[in-house]
């Protein structure tokens, strides 16, 4: 019944913690020139700095033409309609203030948003392994190309993505370190015995009096359900294949590093509200490296552009390769609407191309009590 003697013979006693998957020993990884610092799990060094370009990139130049800046405004009808829609979106709110309120003032607090996007590619390497199933083995057949010399198809500009690639000429086959090349590991549930103490009679073989335990037929032990009585289970690291393909994995990550600067306005509407809306695009400039926008009517925008462009080009070229930059200026319409309802003055804001409404002080937020 218990054929665990065979399983036992396969395994020398492995001391105490033969359960935990062991970390691969350092000797498992070949020494690959150009990849000396590469570690298991990538904990070693993070992203690899790209090599310096052979010829220096062209210095960015200011745009030759200056755009015309014109400032739109919204009508009273637009403001009222947006407010009505907003109020009806809150099921408990009374529609009365939005419907009957009389607009007494409309003030524009339009603001500018400068946005800089820097699209980068970064690369990192780590040792990795997978079950060996006959994949090509190419370690040492040629020198491995440098991490930045491996051709990778990049996505469209400003589209984020990550790709993993086996570094050519680094794949080799090794005995699985986890099961020592056995393909199976002792079962932790029964400590490799294949059976364990019967849960029904706690090993006595009898229950209340002299009745034989019918769960284990009086043996006092039962088959281990975890390993089906084998005493061992398939190794999870090599999936029973006994061998692993060990290789250096290159991870390539494309990131759009986006940063906004919004000119402070005194309307009382918090700047965070603007993150969800778009504005009218006044300026757009896409280049390998942009030159900070110049001559914009609001000097705060020009100053922010200079600061962000310098910071991005410096920071992102150190640990990654800059592929493209884009700078935009949007005009975000903000209208502060003052209206009278039941003799009192209240305000709300309509902002963005989407005519979003903010009405933190709506006078009738519960239709059950007001009216
Ligand atoms: Zn029993
Ligand atoms: Zn077991
Ligand atoms: Zn294994």
TrEMBL record:
Domain of life the protein comes from: Eukaryota
InterPro entries: SSUH2_homolog
PANTHER family, per the entry: PROTEIN SSUH2 HOMOLOG (PTHR48465)
Protein name per the record: Protein SSUH2 homolog
Lineage, uppermost ranks: Eukaryota, Metazoa, Chordata, Craniata, Vertebrata
